[in-house]
Amino acid sequence: MKIGVVTFPGTLDDRDAARAVRLAGGSVVNLWHADANLHKVDAVVLPGGFSYGDYLRCGAIAAQAPVTQAIVKAAEGGLPVLGICNGFQVLVEAHLLPGGLIRNSQGRFICKDQALRVESVSTPWTNGFSQDEIIRIPLKNGEGGYIASASDLERIEGEGLVTFRYVEGNPNGSINDIAGLRNARGNVVGLMPHPEHAVEPGFGPDMDGTMRSGIDGLRFFTSVLNGLVNA
Amino acid sequence: MPKIVVEIMPKADLLDPQGKAVNNSLHRKGNARIVNVRVGKRIELHFDSEITDADLFEAREIAEQFLSNDVIEDVVDVRVEA
After folding, report:
1. What residues contact A104, with CB distance under 8 A and at least 6 apart?
2. What is the ipTM of this complex?
3. Which residues does chain A have within 8 Å of residue B17's beta carbon, measured at their own beta carbons?
4. Is A33 in the active site?
5. Cα nearest neighbour of B20 on chain A
6. Contact assignment for B15 to A93 by CB distance below 8 Å
7. pTM exceeds cut of 0.90
């Protein structure tokens, strides 16, 4: 199973995302921002970072890139797409997901291990979780405050599109504690926290008194690979 | 050089951390008259020939669809400047 990992100028977490895919048992295809060819990948990860230096707005210029335009078309056909942090910002700027992301309410960059509740398991990226399971993965961003218009928010909540909600406190002022979303079809998922940084014992978040043992992020990648195998 | 100027502001009901920081700084300097500051963007689109109505129309579209994000910002003006 081939998972594409996109690199824009300014992407930072592409190698971590690629490593997560390999640890989950998949093979990685590196996708370049200027190349509209998706090289027949079975799924795509848009990793975190500061694409195009966050110029104009976070994710706005990356949303116009040739590779993103190809991903938008493929996503409309059902290709599984995961946007992490800046990748989530790219997905909202590309209108694959509703709403937008603004500066954290307290005005500071946040870097911490964050607890989330998985509220939708009917996506290729979350089918390995149980409904309402609490997971812990790192959160690190300056502009992670999720907002949406009143009508979008009503639709998001009404259709059960909220995929991850912050628990144990809202870190950044996101409306309704929303940490991540899916589209109506479920193939496109975006979230601010970073699953790719919680995939290997010794390097993940602290869990229940065991230092750095958290690997909850790995299941994002095993979920999509298992789904592809069974498809 | 003829240009079209686009002005964009964060939506009025959204927190504007930049404006707040500038406002706080002004107050620290002792300016009590200014009660609030908001920071937006001015974007210039330069042309090498006279700007047509079609150019201005297209600039409005670009402003609405790419230069701003209507979830978080408002386009407050798109105008031709000499």
Report:
1. A110, A141, A142, A143, A144, A145, A171, A172, A173
2. 0.85
3. 103, 107
4. no
5. A107
6. no
7. yes
- What percentage of chain B exceeds 90 in pLDDT? 83
CA atoms within 13 A on the CB side of A223: 23
pLDDT in tens, B22-46: 999 999 999 889 999 999 999 999 9
| Per-residue tokens: B50 | 């006279």
Compute the Cα dihedral for A119, A196, A111, A103 and give only its sign. Answer: negative
With contacts defined as CB-CB under 8 Å, which chain B residues touch A103? 15, 17
- Residue A65 Rama label (left phi>0; alpha psi -120 to 50; beta): beta
Burial A216-225 (b: 16+ CB within 10 A, else e): bbbbbbbbbb
Interface check A64 vs B, CB under 8 A = yes
Q: Is the dihedral of CA A27, A32, A33, A35 positive or negative?
A: negative
CA nearest to A48, candidates A182, A204, A197: A197
In B, residues 7-36, which contact A (CB 8 Å cutoff)? 14-15, 17, 20-21
**In this complex, do B69 and A93 lie within 8 Å of one another by their Cβ atoms?**
yes
Q: In chain A, which among 76-135 make CB contacts under 8 A with chain B? A: 92-93, 99-100, 102-103, 105, 107
Whole-number CA gyration radius for chain A:
16
Q: What is the pLDDT of residues A106-161, one digit of tens each?
A: 888 999 999 999 999 999 999 999 999 999 999 999 999 999 999 999 999 999 99
The pLDDT tens digits of the residues spanning A166-209 come to 999 999 999 999 999 999 999 999 999 999 999 999 999 999 88
Cβ-based contacts of B67 with chain A (< 8 Å)? 56
